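Morning F.,

Quick status update on the modeling queue. The single chain you submitted on Monday has been processed. Sequence for confirmation:
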Amino acid sequence: MCKLCKARAGATRREFLKGTLAAGAGAMTGGGLLAAANASPSVATRSDEARSEMPAHSGEAGRRVLIRGGHVLSMDDSVGDFTHGDVLIEGSRIVAVGAELEADDAEVIDARGRIVMPGFIDTHHHLFETALRSFLADGIMFDDGTPEGSPNYMDHILGKLAPVYRPEDVYINELFGSLSQLDAGVTTVMDTSQIHHSPEHSDAALEGLRDSVRRSVFGYFEGQGEHSRYPQDASRLREQYFATGDGLSADGLMTMVMGGEIYLPDHEAAWALARELELPLAYHVVGSLGMAETFDELAASGQLAENHILIHMTGMSDMAWQAVRDAGAHVSLAVPIEMTMRHGTPPLMKTSELGILPSLSSDVECTMTADFFTQMRSTLTLQRMFVNELALQGEEERPALLTSREVIRYATMGGAKGLRLEQRVGSLTPGKEADILLLDAEAINVAPLNNVPGAVVTLMERSNVETVLVGGRIRKWRGQLLGADLPRLRDELTASRDYLFEAAGVDRRLFD
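Structure tokens below.
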């Protein structure tokens, strides 16, 4: 019997249901269920009205907040998950995770019907390109001599638009892009800011990150023009902005990474300065841009290190991958971008084969959205496509299928470890910073909830991100981002967009 034949036994039941629905259609539209729903507040509305008010002064020292009764996805095996659980926060930190916690002195956030989980961590995002959103939606990375290669990223984004950025453009792009990701539940980012045309540009990038009030890793990469002070200005930036203990900013939310692109002729100077300043080192590794030979040389000579963040890793040799694993270096994947912009095949099979825990990253919004539901779904479906094809071909030696829980691990603890923040964030663990999401599992696109990791990865979107905390401080409450005049900021970003395209001489055609 074929596999489909086994399902025929349920046909009678399905036909009965179809008949029931047809018979009831008139009642539901002409005074039945729909009319009743419109005549009085819905159950969801009444539930929302009964929810607690927003706790005051969240995140401040000594303030205790109890997130009560949610579906707790801790991402910490030692803590576990809770069908109905609580998370107790004191100041900026998590102090307890469990069921029916006692905390009479705490303000309560009613999390019934919500998934409570750690914030997402983006390990590679060019935030300065926020004003260029969707400009290169159909573009690829380089000119390949065909119409598909124009416009392209190298010539138009980096070659024409990036050089005309002023410090004020950098600031509003960084700020607006950060707030947008915060609204979508991305509580930590590594800003890969290749826009350091002058010290003033660098200061503007840092100020934009700071004013967004989320956790950020400032990636000091190269700039363009005679006023650029890369890489030597890293010493000033480290001293001015990250002089507190553990290399933190004054607000405790920012750290620093040194960019050291191996395609630059003098990358050795940036690498040496990173070692001197004791900073992690991040760089792109892209086979389609001809970097395989250079990376092979670095790998063979033992220059890879545990604190290296390798972005993309497409098209690299088996020898290089073995060196990455042996060194304990981190791999940051930008799966949707790698697939659409011709970086090469996302190396999910390699990370699976070698037991490497990667992180996820959004890369560039000129081509693809920076929300993490897109990143997770793309990663899950691509890896499963590869493995399923091997299974259909009869290959017995193949990686296991990626699961929803595992891809959430990429998006949380994978990012935390890659950015060397695993002692601070990435899971709901007592002692860690309270970077927490409340996701609406009663929304129309999710209910009824049957599987928590599955709902997060396969059903949800940014509209399900109801409440966001960073370091215990509420930054989004019941669907509303706090502390930002978004209409004014949007106008400033639009003005920046208009200036950039005019100054660069690039046509902005809405329907091309």
